[in-house]
Structure formats: C-alpha cells, structure tokens
Specification:
mainly alpha; Mitochondrial carrier fold; 10 helices; MCP_dom_sf; MCP_transmembrane; mitochondrion inner membrane; mitochondrion; transmembrane helix
Length: 282
Amino acid sequence: PVEKKTNTMVCLPSFLHGGTSSLVSTLTTFPIYKIVFRQQLHSTVVSQAIGQLRKEGFLKLYRGVVPPLLMKTLNGTLLFGIHDTFLHCLSITNPCGVIPLSALPAVAGLGTGMVEALVFTPFERVQNVLQNGGNDRSLPTLRSVLARLRAERLGSGYYRAFIPILARNSLGSCIYFGLKDPVSAALREKGLPPMASSFLSGMVISSMAINLPLYPLSVLVVNMQAGVMGEAAGVRGSWKALWEGQLKRSVPLLYRGGFLVILRSCISWGITTALYDRHSAH
C-alpha cells in the first residue's frame, strides 16, 4: 500500500503542471483562436477578422473564452498526467529492456493519445457541429445539439470521425513526447537557457513534426463531424469526397487556413512545454 501510494503521488504533479501550463497558453493564444474562428464562420480573410474584433473592442476580445479554456486545461491535465503515469508504469514493467529506454516516452505518448481520443472526440464533435453555420436553424442551441447526438448511434453521433482522431492524436502525442526532451537537450547544448530551449522545442515539434504533416487529418475530421444528417460515409469515402470534390485534388486548398492554426499551435505548445518543463524541474 505504501509503494502504491508513492507511485500515485509521483504522477500527481504532472496532472497539475500540465493543467496550469495549458491554461496559461490558452489565455495567451485565445485572440488567435478567435481570429481563426471568425475566418471559419464568415469565410473572411485575416485582415477582415482582425478588423471585426478591433471594432468590437478589447472588452469583448475574451468573450467566449470559458469553454475552450476549460477544454484545453482538462486536455493538458490529462495529456501530461496520463503520459507520466504510463511512463512510470512502463519503466517498472520493462526491466529486461524489451523497449529501449529512449523509446519509452514515445510509447507512453502513443497510449496517451489513444486515451485522449476516447475522452475528447465527443467534445470535438459538439464543437464542430456548433461552428457549422448550416446547423444554425435546425440546431440553434447547445442543448439541441446534445439531444440530437444522443439520439444517434455512437459511431454517427458523438464518436463520428473517431478513427482519424485516434490516428492524429496517437501519432501527435507519440511524436511530441518522443522528441520533446531530445530536441530541448540539443538546444541547451547550443547554449540556450532551459526555458528558451523548451519553448523552441515545443514550437519546432508542434509545427514541423506534428501539425504540418497531420493537418490533413484535422481537415478530414472537421468535414466529417460538422454535419448531422444521415450516416457517416466512412473514413475512405469521406476523404475521397473531400479530396475530389471540395479540394479538387489541390494541396494548397487542403492547407487553406492552416497557417494561423499552425501558428497558434506553435505558440501554444511552446508556452505549454516551457512552463511544464520549468515546473517539473522544481
């Protein structure tokens, strides 16, 4: 019992530090999130979205921050806490070195991404339905969206697009936790301070290794989850319809709007990584 209590206590700070780091990064990057949202909602360019927010004034800039703040804080809490828990368990159950020590963070990240997908797919589904202007008349409120999704089977309701979300989150977490410490250590060897090396590590990994190659999965998820009418076409059918229809087999169209999403993610994960590593070091 004493050992079990000790093992539990070892992982508790990771939940706390992950949550607080994500909270701060979400508050910092919310204005970028709001610009992206206005672009998605009104199909405007960046300058027009910024003009809308400027006209509304600073006091309304953070209107609507509570839902994404709660979701991102919960996400960071679970992401870092579960990863540290998995990593701790793997280090105990891997005495013979079946998995190389250097690969343990990436393997733990793979499992963390799976748990993350199970927990957050319904949240993402509700958010994408609400952000689709085509649903405004039939589903005007959050309550009506929840009632509609409850009436559907899990595969076409709350867990529509679960497979691409599972692939995106698992691969993303595996890459992030597998590269975070090695990249940060390499930057520190170049003479950068710990906070700066952690910040740049989070930014580089988030942009080049995760968001850029995995962005098509996010586009697929949005298009699969935004609608509520009828059965989902499946991953292959949805991708074929998206690629050949809306995107017209164009890679530039696929990445349209991706610049701000990737920029926001870079800043957010840079801040989150720097704050988390700083807290963990103490």
